[in-house]
Design brief:
5 helices
Amino acid sequence: MDNQELPIVAATRDGFNRYADFSGVSTRSQYWYFVLTTSVITFIISAIAGELVGNVVSLLTVIPTIAVAIRRMHDVGKSGWFILIPVYNFILLITPSKL
């Protein structure tokens, strides 16, 4: 096996490295891998350490998650403000890239 990172690890690392970067793009797989990873980590920490610690972890991942979502909106050719429209943003999050 070669030394390439797994896509889920690379997407999560990219999401946290660019935690306050609201410009640029994130692909569909980067977005969903990041959301999956942060959700699973939050669930596991909540189960182990309690709900309060899980809520703290959730709060720590809010800004990176918003940044990844805005970059995902840019990837489908829309403004980042579209994340405020609940149903339409979900449709855009599953839409293939335009770029």
